[in-house]
Write a structure and sequence with these properties.
With 372 residues, the chain is of the alpha/beta class. The chain folds into two domains: 214 residues, P-loop containing nucleotide triphosphate hydrolases (Rossmann fold, 3-Layer(aba) Sandwich); 123 residues, Rossmann fold. It contains ten helices and twelve strands. The strands form two sheets. It has an eight-stranded mixed sheet with strand order 6-7-8-3-9-10-12-11, sandwiched between helices. A four-stranded antiparallel sheet has the order 2-1-4-5, covered by helices on one side. Strand 11 and strand 12 form a beta hairpin. The longest helix has 18 residues. The structure holds adenosine-5'-triphosphate and nickel (II) ion. One of its GO terms (molecular function) is ATP binding. Keywords: ATP-binding, Cell membrane, Ion transport, Membrane, Nucleotide-binding, Translocase, Transport. It is a peripheral membrane protein. Pfam families: ABC_tran, oligo_HPY. The complex is composed of two ATP-binding proteins (NikD and NikE), two transmembrane proteins (NikB and NikC) and a solute-binding protein (NikA).
Length: 372
């Protein structure tokens, strides 16, 4: 959602949703999204920003969401957070948090359970209040903390996100913080809700590489300490490899592949994932030119009747233009929405690969030709 610069929710300059209350967890996934479809009714057309998206996030897990610009990553996050504004609307699907369906009526009671960190810390912090002020306000709303207790907790939170000299800096304004320190402060505000799930929408993209690495490390530490679940959105496969436990690969509003991170990198099953991986510097097998996927993500306006990736896919065959591929199990914990895998998973946990001849890597490309 970066292009139009609307990542900060209107009327919430500190980027922290309001509301409170916690319920106790069951054995169900922390977050379970099923068949979620969010559309934008523009003057010209209806954009199907995310289409029939299903996934879960478990307690303490990092789910990475990756895909090119326009693939629906931010809309997925905003849908889960109840931040879709007109002309957008959740058309269908279910979002359950700790087993409870999120509806217009009860969304507010879960506001503090799910926090979001956006790409640009400048849009998330209010320039006219001190950092400490913004943390304390969130503590008051979400944890009922006020006075000295809130002041101490604000300092503790700044310390926990690695801001040196926190006791002094808590009284400073956002402009007195560097970019990296500002994003740490944003994370501190997000944590002041005491969330179970932290959604990070490209939280390091605006930062330089060294700072980016530090923030990723910080999130990793926080996750261990606080048993946080994290939904991490990025277009950068390198960042995914470092942060995610599981990965959803999105394309044109759909999840085209989902797998544990190691498996996704070792044996990607969808040609789109294979293309994304092939464009990571250092992963190319030969030649000095990075292969990129030609073309760009289409903006879907109708329900899919074909594979939305077909016209960019090096392995496409006739049926890809006629049949919409549904996610198919290709391993114990691995799905791919691609007709190459329509035979599915043979149930052998030893390989996790129904067709070894079509497994990872560009070499599998020629195989698709059989179908023509
Ligand atoms: N407010 C809006 N009005 C109309 N269309 C929208 C709106 N917000 C998002 N979209 C459309 O929804 C689709 C998905 O957008 P989204 O922001 O989720 O992509 P993204 O994967 O987050 O991309 P990026 O990497 O650029 O942030 C795009 O086609 C986009 O144009
Ligand atoms: Ni986005």
């Amino acid at each position: 959602m970066r292009p139009n610069g609307t990542d900060a929710p209107a009327g919430e300059p500190d980027g922290v949703p309001t509301g409170a209350a916690c319920t106790d967890g069951g054995r169900e996934a922390l977050l379970a999204v099923e068949g979620l479809t969010t559309v934008f009714h523009t003057d010209k057309e209806t954009i199907r920003a995310i289409d029939d998206v299903s996934f879960t996030v478990d307690k303490g897990e990092t789910l990475g969401i990756v895909g090119e610009s326009g693939s629906g990553k931010s809309v997925t996050a905003r849908s889960v957070l109840g931040l879709i504004d007109s002309p957008g609307v959740i058309e269908s699907g279910s979002i359950r948090f700790r087993g409870e369906e999120l509806t217009d009526d009860n969304w507010d009671t879960h506001r503090g359970d799910i926090s979001i960190v956006f790409q640009d810390p400048n849009n998330s912090l209010n320039p006219v209040y001190t950092v400490g002020n913004q943390i304390r306000e969130t503590l008051r709303i979400h944890q009922n903390l006020t006075g000295a207790a809130a002041r101490e907790e604000a300092v503790r939170l700044l310390e926990s996100v690695g801001i040196p000299d926190a006791r002094r800096r808590v009284g400073e304004y956002p402009h007195q913080f560097s970019g990296g320190m500002k994003q740490r402060a944003v994370i501190a505000v997000a944590l002041a809700c005491d969330p179970d799930l932290l959604v990070c929408d490209e939280p390091t993209t605006a930062l330089d590489v060294t700072i980016q690495a530090q923030i990723l490390e910080l999130l990793d530490d926080l996750q261990d300490e606080e048993d946080l679940a994290i939904m991490f959105i990025t277009h950068d496969m390198g960042v995914i490899e470092e942060t995610a436990d599981r990965v959803n690969v999105m394309y044109a509003g759909e999840i085209v592949e989902s797998a544990p991170v190691d498996e996704l990198f070792d044996a990607p099953q969808h040609p789109y994932t294979q293309g994304l991986l092939a464009s990571i510097p250092g992963r190319t097998v030969s030649g000095d030119r990075l292969p990129t996927i030609g073309g760009e993500v289409p903006t879907p306006t109708t329900e899919p009747t074909d594979c939305r990736f077909a016209d960019r896919c090096p392995q496409a065959f006739d049926a890809c233009e006629r049949v919409h591929p549904e996610p198919i199990r290709v391993g114990p914990d691995h799905t791919a929405a691609c007709l190459l895998h329509e035979d599915g998973y043979d149930g052998d946990p030893g390989t996790g690969d129904p067709r070894p001849d079509r497994s990872a890597g560009g070499d599998a490309v020629a195989d698709g030709g059989d179908h023509q």
